[in-house]
């Protein structure tokens, strides 16, 4: 869990930039790539990443919601733009509406007490989880994925290094 707003600020800033870089690599055509037939698409997962940030308002934070409803937009550029806006809104809300003490306070969610500092950690892990799903679907859709926590296959090849298996 986070115990200091400044620690969350630093981590969120770099994690949100990684997520945005993955969203930037999407194309409109790729948004229809499905996990399996009839299940979530790349577009739906991407949009879920944007919308889920707003769930943090259930912890008492107040900030503007995404400008579209549950249905995933068909524009990759719009999704990336909205992600940047909402992830910034979330960070501003945490920095201006909470302090280090707030992180030790808890909120009941489905009969379970969640410390705010843990909810912030969970929010980052939730993004990482879906970002990992996205990069696989992006490969399947024929897209190149950006480096996230290390070089991708293509980056190794460009550097003239044999990619690790
Ligand atoms: Ni999710």
TrEMBL record:
It comes from the Bacteria. InterPro entries: DinB, DinB/YfiT-like. Keywords: Metal-binding. SUPFAM superfamilies: DinB/YfiT-like putative metalloenzymes (SSF109854). Belongs to the DinB family. This is Damage-inducible protein DinB.
């Amino acid at each position: 869990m986070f115990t200091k707003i400044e620690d969350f600020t630093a981590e969120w800033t770099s994690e949100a930039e990684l997520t945005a870089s993955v969203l930037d690599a999407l194309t409109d055509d790729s948004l229809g790539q499905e996990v399996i037939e009839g299940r979530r698409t790349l577009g739906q997962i991407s949009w879920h990443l944007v919308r889920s940030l707003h769930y943090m308002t259930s912890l008492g934070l107040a900030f503007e919601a995404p400008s579209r409803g549950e249905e995933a937009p068909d524009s990759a550029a719009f999704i990336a733009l909205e992600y940047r806006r909402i992830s910034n809104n979330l960070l501003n809300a945490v920095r201006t509406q909470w302090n280090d003490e707030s992180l030790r306070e808890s909120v009941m969610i489905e009969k379970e007490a969640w410390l705010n500092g843990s909810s912030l950690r969970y929010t980052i892990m939730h993004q990482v989880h879906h970002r990992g799903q996205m990069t696989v679907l992006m490969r399947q859709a024929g897209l190149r994925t950006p480096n996230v926590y290390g070089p991708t296959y293509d980056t190794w090849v460009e550097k003239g290094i044999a990619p690790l298996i």
